[in-house]
Each structure stands twice: as structure tokens, then as C-alpha cells.
What does this fold into?
Amino acid sequence: MACTHNPVPDERILDAEQVPTWTRGLWVVVEPFSGNPVEGELVEASGQGVTVLIGQSLVRFRPPDCQRVTVAVFRTRESVPVIWTIAGTLSTLSHGGFLLISAPVWQIVGNTTVVLMHNRPIHQYPDDPLQDFARFARFPQGMPADFTPP
It folds into this structure.
């Protein structure tokens, strides 16, 4: 188990409290097989691909063109379990010889928790199907025919 690579810039990731009231698509990074990664607002997503608003332009990516598509739904607070893991591990000094058992348990559970918390809000294609990204798009049911970028 390892932390998932997250190419979404930190300043584009929402706080968890902002997600329920956010009225636009989340920030997405598309890494095509050919060319440089592209990032912008996720406008629409389906099994046929994703549409990304880049500046004033809408760009469509089909699944065969995408090596990876990443959306980070919200910013996590991994510092809390890290502090608890350190404090718990240090507390095993009072366990005497049993710290040979309790210290590794604190480390295994604490580190696993941190990795799971880090990976939880990150969704990536091809691990997740593109149609699952629709809930993070500006238009989850598909783009209206009359939509023009702002």
C-alpha cells in the first residue's frame, strides 16, 4: 500500500467543508499518452470520455487517449493521525519489554491510517471508470447543447 500520486495543484483542491456547496466542476489533471499533462475544470464525464475547460476552450479526451485522469475531491488533514502515531509510539516506552510488540502495532496502524486518509479523496482513471467522475463535473448528467465557456 502506497500513497497515490496526486498531480492536482494544492491551491486547486477544496477544503472538505467547501465540497457540498461548490457549483463548478472540480479541478482535473488529464495525462494523455502523447503530450504534456493538461489541467482545468471538469465540465462533463462519461464512459465516452471527459470534457475539460482550459481557459476559454473546451477540450474532449476519449478513454484511449488518457493514460491517467486525476481528481482530488478535498484536502485531507493527515497531520492528526501522524501526531497520534508519534505520541502512541512514544507512549510504548512505558510498556517495558512489551514495547517490542506495542510499538510496531502503533506504527503499522498509524501509517496505514495516514496512507488511507491520503488516498481516500483521490480518484484516478484507469483505477476508477470515467463515468464515476461525472459526480465531480459541472454538468454531472452531461453537457447542455447550448453551453458556451465563460
